[in-house]
Design a protein that fits this description.
Elements (H helix, E strand, L loop, with lengths): L1 H16 L3 H13 L7 H13 L3 H13 L7 H13 L3 H13 L7 H12 L6 H6 L5 H17 L1
Helix pairs in contact: 1-2, 2-3, 3-4, 4-5, 5-6, 6-7, 7-9
């Protein structure tokens, strides 16, 4: 019930204030959704930022999305790309997918279809399909596809 959720939110706040990254992310989610606390996108984004800076990969993704969309702070596509990249290298499929989309369009990063294809392949290897990227990258030459595949495989070996 609502009283239990509110109590859990207060306990989560204590853990978040104690610099526990997963609790910071979880508190951000509760604030974003208005569960157990009054919805507050600015506060949610602030907690996602703290979680990201403390190494929580889910927090990195949420903070990157907020940065990209200007949700709770001024939009900054380059900073969003930086956080997506950090989470992508840590194996997060959502971050890999978003980074692929950014490279496909050159938003916040240099437009680079090979980078886009490599990150797309990495996300797809974890089951995250993206028909838009499939269509966007359909015009790559076989040489570009091979280069992207080699890049993705080298990164998968590093993750």
């Amino acid at each position: 019930d609502e009283a239990d959720i509110a109590r859990a939110a207060e306990l989560m706040r204590g853990a978040a204030e104690a610099e526990i990254p997963s609790a910071q992310h979880a508190l951000g989610v509760l604030l974003a959704e208005g569960r157990g606390l009054e919805a507050n996108r600015i506060a949610a984004t602030a907690w996602f930022s703290r979680a990201a800076r403390n190494g929580d990969v889910s927090g990195m993704v949420e903070f990157a999305i907020a940065l990209f969309n200007g949700d709770g702070l001024a939009p900054n596509e380059a900073q969003a790309a930086r956080w997506f990249r950090e989470a992508a290298f840590r194996g997060n499929a959502i971050a890999q997918n978003r980074l692929a989309r950014l490279h496909a369009r050159g938003r916040g990063v240099v437009q680079d279809p090979i980078e886009a294809a490599a990150w797309h392949l990495m996300a797809a290897s974890q089951g995250l399909a993206d028909a838009w990227l499939d269509e966007e990258l359909a015009t790559l030459s076989q040489e570009q596809r091979d280069e992207a595949r080699a890049l993705a495989q080298s990164r998968l070996g590093e993750t």
